[in-house]
Amino acid sequence: MKTTKPPLTIAWFIWGLAALFYMMGFFQRVAPAVMTEELMRDFSIGAAALGNLSAFYFYSYVAMQIPTGILADTWGPRRLLTAGAFVAGAGTLLFAFSQGIAAAAAGRLLIGASVSVAFVCMLKLASNWFPPRMFALVTGAALFSGIIGAVSAGPPLRLLMDLSGWRTIMVAAALFTWLIGLGIYLFVRDWPRQKGYENLIEPDSTSSSISFPTIYANIRQSLQSRNTILLFFIPGGIVGCTLTFSGLWGVPYLSTHQGLTTAEASAATSCLLVAWAIGGPVFGWASDRLGKRKPLYILGCAVCILGWSILFFTSAIGGVLLVIVLMITGFCSGCMVVSFAFAKESVPARLAGTVSGIINMGVMMGPMILQPVVGIVLDALWQEEMINGARIYSQDAYRAGFSLMLAWAALSLVLLLFTRETHCRQTKGEP
User: Fold this and answer.
1) Nearest to residue 67, comparing CAs of 1, 114, 9?
2) Residue 118 domain-assigned?
3) φ, ψ of residue 41 in degrees (nearest 5)
4) Can you list the positions of beta strands (E) in 144-243?
5) What CATH number does the domain containing 258 carry?
6) Does the global pTM surpass 0.70?
7) Residue 45 near residue 101, CB atoms below 8 Å
8) Would residue 250 count as lying in a domain?
9) pLDDT in tens, 249-303
């Protein structure tokens, strides 16, 4: 066995295969945004039903987060990622061939449950393969990789849909996801020692088996930290705004009320996502350099609230200014990645997977709740306008729905004020 620490090139390669799977999961998360007209027409549904169909991904994703965190601490990332990739491919095929809303929802449910393992496993691999000082940076890079998948579900997906249709594209996505799963099985290892290098941290001797008392104890100990409870709710407001807008309702809103074509609206929301991808690593790196988690998180959240308020309640915005506001808002939304380092430092290191699962569950509750709820508001205020078989909603209807997003973001800012600063230092004992 080599007595040297693993080279960063090896660490990035191992982690990068998991990031590739996460990228595909993000693609699936955002893809309905440019399929709204096709899905509403093919399945004869309105905004509430479409929001619910999109949210089926989040229902199972959220439900799997704590189990995934526990399994990452016990079974290890490699097995979880491999199984997740193959199940995700099967769910994508089911969605692609569905002829009714029930089968489509089942496919989305299966996709969400299977790709839910990706992010927590990436964090676990980051803990095992990278020096602790790089954890927040790698977390930001994780978000960046996901946003690449989200951007590919923007203008590129719209272009491909015009050429071959959404069902054919989903079949291709399923095959690519299976290829990723094979790569993970062949090359990913949970610990550097399994590749012949020195472990950066030692595995916890109690984490090789699962028992209900252990699971309960890990969750209970993680929740004893005030930060864990607060950080469960905080990022949901930020991510809920970002993914509810870019992942479902932004394209129809911008094309209906900001004078953009569907392709231009898709490109505009992709700008938001690209800025989010850049903001994540920047906020992670900056908080590491500053030696504090709280100040930058508060600043980013406050700017997000201002940006969304301008986008939703200023009628005259358009063109270059619209894109600038979207990009600033997206960039500052990257502050949410601080949640994971913040929470990990608030509990003992052996609970890294469990607490990451708890926090990521809170993250995904934002879009899970807001996507269908905004759709319900839109349908309630619908004035029976339709174009090409799809419903058209008024600006007042959108503002009413989007106000719910802003309310959660405002709550996130308030809750941040009550978190306890960790100064980027790991808790050694009891939280």
Assistant:
1) 114
2) yes
3) -75, -45
4) none
5) 1.20.1250.20
6) yes
7) yes
8) yes
9) 898 899 888 888 878 888 898 899 889 888 988 998 899 889 999 999 999 999 9
Question: Domains in the chain: how many in total?
Answer: 1
Residue 333 counted as domain residue = yes
User: How far apart are alpha carbons 228 and 117 in whole angstroms?
Assistant: 20
Under 8 Å between Cβ of 373 and 389:
no
Q: Which residues have C-beta within 8 Å of that of residue 137, sequence separation ≥ 6?
A: 281, 284, 285, 288
What is the sign of the dihedral through the CA atoms of 228, 230, 233 and 236?
Answer: negative
Mean pLDDT, rounded, of the chain: 88
- Tell me, yes or no, whether 3 lies in a domain: no
CB-hemisphere CA count at 13 Å for 229? 9
Handedness of CA 98, 101, 106, 109 (dihedral sign): positive
Asked whether 15 and 136 are in contact (CB, 8 A), the reply is no
State mean pLDDT over 62-81. Answer: 82
Task: Residue 346: give the domain boundaries.
Answer: 8-193+210-416
- Separation of CA 252 from chain center: 21
State whether residue 387 is helix, strand or coil: strand
Beta bridge partners of 390: 387
Compute and round to an integer the Cα radius of gyration of the chain: 21
Q: Are 75 and 68 in contact (CB under 8 A)?
A: no
